[in-house]
Amino acid sequence: MPRLPLGDWVDSGVNWLVGHFSWLFDAVKAVMEGMYDGIDAVLAAPAPLLMAGILAVVAWWLRGLLAGLLAFAGFALVDSLDLWDRAMSTLALVLVATVIALLISVPLGIWAARSRAVSAAVRPVLDLLQTMPSMVLLIPAMLFFGLGTAAGVVATLIFALAPGVRMTELGIRQVDAELVEAAEAFGTSPRDVLWRVQLPLALPTIMAGVNQVIMLGLSMVVIAGMVGTGGLGGAVNEAIGQLDIGYGFEAGVGIVVLAIYLDRVTGALGTRLSPLGRRAAAKVPTRAWSYRPRPAVAVAGVAALALVAGGLGVLGSSSGTSEASGSDIGKGKEIRIGYIPWDEGIASTYLWKELLEERGFKVTTTQYAAGPLYTGLATGQVDFQTDSWLPTTHAEYWAKYGERLEDLGKWYGPTSLELTVPSYVKDVNSLADLEEHASEFDGKIVGIEPSAGMMGLLKSKVLKEYGLDGTYEVVDGSTPAMLAELKRAYARKQPVVVTLWSPHWAYSDYGLKKLEDPKGAWGKGDGVHTLARKGFAADNPVVGRWLKDFSMTEEQLTGLEAQIQKAGKGREQDAVRTWLRRHPGLAGKWAPVAGGATESRAAG
Amino acid sequence: MQPRLEAEHLFKVFGRRPDEAVERVRKGADRDDLRGDGTTAAVIDASFRVEEGEIFVVMGLSGSGKSTLLRMLNGLLEPTAGRVLFDGRDLTALTDRELRKLRSERISMVFQHFALFPHRSVRDNAAYGLEVQGVPRAERERRADEALALCGLAGWEKAWPDELSGGMQQRVGLARALATDADLLLMDESFSALDPLIRRDMQDQLLELQKTLRKTIVFITHDLNEAMRLGDRIAVMRDGRIVQTGTAEDILLRPANDYVASFIQDVDRSRVLTAAAVMDTEPRGDEADCGCETAAPDTPFTELCALSARLTHPVAVLDAGRTLVGVVPRQRLVGVLGDEHGEATACDRDGGKVTGRA
């Protein structure tokens, strides 16, 4: 069989689209981000408990008192887990995706219900959208819409579209044909048949579709979190990236609360909206826990709470103080830093966040996977990132995006890549020792993401050099999976060999042994570089100079990492501040201000 | 006078190349020949006229094409060939919009399974046709309530269809059809889904309403008893063709072929027949001269039997002008009931036994 270059076609198709329709994508993006920002602003404006109250009243109105109380308890839990803002941004994302999905899927479903040809044409497309692994769609979405909300919405949307179309079509098709005929027999026009008979009767099924759309949308937010949508999805991704089980669970609970709330509320909305559902609900005897306020009361309740919220919001925003100081160089200018959740990345990113904020910049930090981060830099979505391992580990990214990036130089190095075994594994000290101990390790080397530079190097060069090609198999996976495997084996004192690199916190947590590389197969170590988008240094000459001059010693870096590790999740910047206070002078050295006015401030 | 409704050589063929199929049927192919090609001739060459104020019943078994025929009469289905004339207007020549207007104002329909809208109250169901016409709410509710009252449902306006029994639901269906004040009522097996007793009630009510409303009604049924009870004239369909059209008595006494004859075996003749159908139309002339009770031409058969039992001689039948139009000898009553049209033969006493003839 000849090799069909399908992938190349798709590649060039995507490139062509990006080249010729960027105006369209920009417009779509603007609309989506506008919707998202609007909804998010409304949801996040009131105090969390007040918003929880509003959401609870909605649940009370739709489902009864018990549902309202549970909703309040659920959202209070989310707030107490310190996930409120993230939950609201996820809710906003899901709502935007749902609204757009419905605007597309309901008319499409109606059309498919009325025309067999359309139905037949739409079905395979839906199958494709629904079953194509979402990660595969995420990358083109990112190329079209850049990092952030829009790409997340699109990825969510595509995944959630199918049930909306299917359920709408099904709902309309299953309306009794005799009823449609009756409507026609009395001279109803096709449009009125749809509005007066088919849609009202199909409504319960359509609402079930809406429900599905929302649920699938929620299940997609975690994946969307990989392209920097933030929210609970972002939290889950951060937790996965850092193997933080507790935090991952908390974020997961947040998603579950949202899911259950949205599921129950949209389910109840279906019965409220459909005349048949309303009648059925009216027949059920009312009890205290199912007592529901009249719509007018519910609207009044929501309005009252919203007014209170609005009032507090106004007061709250006016009481905010500005932290102007003598060293205000940034004057509120915005700088976006992206990072990969590796320890040196987190440490240096929060270090620069703190330094730049001290100097009056407004800094946002967003976590990404490596691929999206480079894409974001190349397209100018991210200003700079501090964790680029060059020339080896990130060679592929550099080859692809290097022309559109600016290298601000190495700030740490050399790093090293290695295969590592726990120190309790005797007799294996060098790569050369591995061959004869293959059976001990089951012939497996636990690897990380197959896309990582070191994995390519391992498979194509290191194994060959030491003749391990036939005896070992490299297990592709992910960094968290590799670390989990290491942790598991370490706890049981089983032999294991993993791919690892320095600096890495695992070396301080476990007793590990780097395998020597007498033949130099891994090559010389990388340097950790700071990469900026093209033109960043020209736009921000001062910051550009600071970053070019930046460097850290191993002692400084590991010390900072340890401080951050100790402070725990969510307190990275506090840890940086503490660390800077203990090391007076560094802030002034890394981000000097004319006259050294900040020296005292950093020390204090 | 122009008939209210006229069907001229209607054909309806489902499937591929229907026009070709019509040609083949015209040349003598039958339904089975077509079925091999995947086409179905549902209605073949149907022609009839329905006069104003008449109940015209189309009777046939399932698959005979009667429902398809009915749906061509209001344009829900377009005939493959032939024309439908309603008050002289050719329905097949109308645009979709004109056809919808005609359906909303002049023709209404009652369905086998009621086809009430479950998401509308009884009143809103009855008012549906008026709503389509764009009649203002207050007026359409008034007219809907009138129609419901006419059908015996006063007081049920605010109920919902699923709260009503089958018979009551069909009354709503009837009220919905009557509310628009349409001239032509199409009733598609409207009473078939009801219990026998309720079905009789509904039939009686329809006849009662018809006395005052004088609608033109085309009624589809598979039940010959129902057809004979309701129909001023009856068309019997078989395999897409109308095999006989006539009054109940025509069909009962003069079935066009064996198929119709086999049908009428199950019919309760005593319910259908009247004095006019069974009487001997060549009376001697003096039968009414005694002071005994007499019958009229439309005296039902059962009453005639009762009369005959009270008299010692044949019953005289007098028309509205008290003129003698016929006599009914008792033997004739028994003969009609037994479907025996021959003369009685004298028995042969020497031959022994008398054998009954079934």
Automatic annotation (TrEMBL), chain A:
ABC transmembrane type-1 domain location: 87-266
A molecular-function term among this protein's GO annotations: carnitine transmembrane transporter activity
GO biological process, one term: glycine betaine transport
Keywords: Cell membrane, Membrane, Transmembrane, Transmembrane helix, Transport
The organism's place on the tree of life at top rank: Bacteria
Residue ranges of the TM segments: 49-78, 90-113, 133-162, 213-233, 245-262, 296-315
Any one GO cellular component localisation term in the record: ATP-binding cassette (ABC) transporter complex
Cross-referenced PROSITE patterns: ABC_TM1 (PS50928)
One Pfam match: BPD_transp_1
Cell location: Cell membrane; Membrane
Protein's membrane topology: Multi-pass membrane protein
Assigned protein family: In the N-terminal section; belongs to the binding-protein-dependent transport system permease family.
Name the UniProt record assigns to this protein: ABC transmembrane type-1 domain-containing protein
Origin species: Streptomyces lucensis JCM 4490
UniProtKB/TrEMBL annotation, chain B:
SUPFAM superfamilies documented for this protein: P-loop containing nucleoside triphosphate hydrolases (SSF52540)
Residues in ABC transporter domain copies: 5-264
Record flagged with keyword Nucleotide-binding: yes
Record keywords, A-Z: ATP-binding, CBS domain, Nucleotide-binding, Transport
GO cellular component: membrane
Similarity annotation: Belongs to the ABC transporter superfamily.
Name of the protein: Glycine/betaine ABC transporter ATP-binding protein
Species, as recorded: Streptomyces lucensis JCM 4490
Lineage: Bacteria, Bacillati, Actinomycetota, Actinomycetes, Kitasatosporales
